[in-house]
Design goal:
By secondary structure, the protein is α+β, with helices and mostly antiparallel strands. It contains 11 helices and 4 strands, in the order ββαααβααααβαααα.
């Protein structure tokens, strides 16, 4: 499986499995089926209800087709329903969270990727570029990976939850973000799956420096504690 390495803002390198062309095509087709079913159902309703206002037709039928992918990627963290079914996700290649601007650029250049030469340009770019990027991805500095971060950390074997008796050790975790915690999970997963402790060690040093923490805990225990503390602090349990 082809992979791509992303350097996060914490200077931790993470390897992602690139979504295959087949996965992306199937996700695209699933989204089109959803739109077609929506259109058929709404058309039938309009006919039955004798809706004659042309603007109602344009708004309720046209706008979903136009903004479908943009709206879902913004609200679903880089996924559309089709992408979620195929377990693929848009990410930024510079390690920062994808922004509305990133999704907007991908959406604008979809005109080039999908509607000129019926998608051939997108397929050729993805197949030959080596980074899983169509034209819109190149402009937005994004790619599409297999197994979005949220899905990969959701398994009970790697998702860290605090015990009922756990008392937060580091109050400074309130200065972290959900994205930081996701990266910690990912670094721990890399060590678990590939016996590579470099991301864990680098991330431990970065977090200690950023939060001004001094601790004798080992790297893994320290990161586990950070995640548990964050879960409790952000839940308002302290």
């Amino acid at each position: 499986m082809q992979t791509i390495r992303v350097r996060t803002t914490q200077n931790v390198y993470i390897d992602y499995a690139l979504a295959s062309i087949g996965d992306r095509i199937l996700a695209y087709l699933i989204d089109r089926v959803i739109l077609i079913l929506y259109t058929v159902a709404l058309f039938a309703f309009f006919v039955q209800a004798d809706v004659n206002n042309i603007w109602v037709w344009i708004i309720l039928l046209g706008i979903p087709w136009l903004f479908y992918s943009l709206a879902f990627e913004i609200t679903m963290n880089g996924q559309t329903p089709g992408k979620r079914v195929m377990n693929i996700q848009v990410i930024k290649l510079d390690g920062t969270p994808a922004t509305v601007g990133s999704y907007l650029l991908r959406w604008i250049f979809a005109l080039v990727d999908f509607y000129i030469m019926s998608g051939v340009i997108a397929v050729v770019c993805i197949a030959m570029g080596g980074r899983g990027q169509r034209v819109g991805d190149m402009v937005a500095n994004t790619s599409v990976v297999k197994g979005g971060l949220q899905q990969e950390i959701s398994g009970s074997d790697i998702f860290i939850t605090p015990e009922e008796t756990h008392t937060p050790t580091f109050a400074q975790v309130a200065d972290l973000s959900d994205r930081d915690i996701e990266i910690i999970h990912r670094a721990l997963e890399v060590m678990r799956q590939h016996d590579n402790d470099e991301p864990v060690l680098a991330l431990t040093d970065k977090i200690k420096s950023r939060l001004g923490i001094q601790s004798d805990l080992g790297a893994v225990d320290f990161l586990n504690t950070i995640v548990k503390d964050y879960s409790i602090v952000m839940a308002g349990r302290v």
